[in-house]
Amino acid sequence: MNRMLVAIVLVALVVGGYFFYRYEAKTVVPEGAVAEQSQVVRGEYLARIGDCYACHTARGGQPYAGGLEMETPFGPLYTTNITPDPDTGIGTWSADDFWRALHEGKSKNGAFLYPAMPYTNYTKVTRADSDAMYAYFRSLKPVRQTNRPHGLSFPYSQRELLLGWRTLYFKEGEYKDDPAQSKEWNRGAYLVEGLGHCNACHSARNMLGAVKPGDEMSGGLIPVQNWYAPSLTSSKETGLGQWDVKEIVDLLRTGVSARGAVYGPMSAVVQHSLQDTTLSDLNAMAVYLKSRAQSGGEPAAPTQVAPTTEQAAAMMTTGAKLYEKHCADCHQPDGKGVARVYPPLANNQSITMSFPINPIRIVLNGGFPPSTDGNPRPYGMPPFFQELNDDEVAAVVTYIRRSWGNAALPVSPAEVVKARGVPTD
Q1: Does 281 share its domain with 383?
Q2: Using CB atoms within 10 A as the burial measure, which of 6, 296, 319, 392 is most buried?
């Protein structure tokens, strides 16, 4: 028995040693491959910060295969396939070609890219980060999907005319640190102004679709989506100068904070991009954004026929009754809401901005903050577009804009009519 036991143990040791050797052999990766995999992982992270998925993935389509229709005032654009397919994607692109697209806004063949691709921001990205993103996109599964031609009207369909636009509104160049600022501030500026391309939405644009010089992140109406992206430089609009860094980070990472919640297009940004950003990078972005929030005024809203004093008083009476019936259970009678569940309406600057379109659209269409790891089951708001008519929506929005210390202008039914339409993300 003892000899048999010894034999079994020896066989077990030999077999175990063999499999251990095989396992160890499999886990030995060449140094170059480790470095390449590390670059791919970093590239994936940077692509998330740049929110490349949101634009280059059509609803129900393959990731990064393009085909998403982007409505613009000049006609529809269709995003391109950036998977490594050699015929329809970027499979034949070199790292230099990819860098040229980000840094110079030019395709592989030298054609000007339309600035719906935010190369005016991406030009600030470093070559090392560009190469990491290139490595990530090259690692994806190739998807054969032909790019759809754009539907821009004449003369905007003539790419050659972009030369004049670029001369006026595009200045290429990597981000350079400001030596007067901290390392954290500079990291935040690099992410906000570069990959994050925050000013693409949070800025007013001129008739040629360019960000107005000097108005970067000063707030802008997103015309096709019919939402207003508030100013990030005016304390009267977002109040970021008074927010704690943690409060800003909470909002960017989870979609909710004690001060409010994100809705509309910003929900998708949090969903696909910001929730995966590291806390150190979010802190850096918050530090930079707080430094940009000044005590200046807010953009002037489009001129509307304002209700008379008597009309406004009647709207407040009607609005109070509607609020008690439809809103008070969640947002509370005093408008203070429930922290991180139902946003406060009292002292909420997103409610009292000169542009009232966001609260109007939320009342009409409802909405949910994004589902994130930090807030996996968000509480949402039902739509009231069928239950309330234009006068009633105007009344309840007027009420929340002028109660509990809020002192914004009343809202006219004409503004509600303008804001109605199919809900868009």
Answers
A1: no
A2: 319
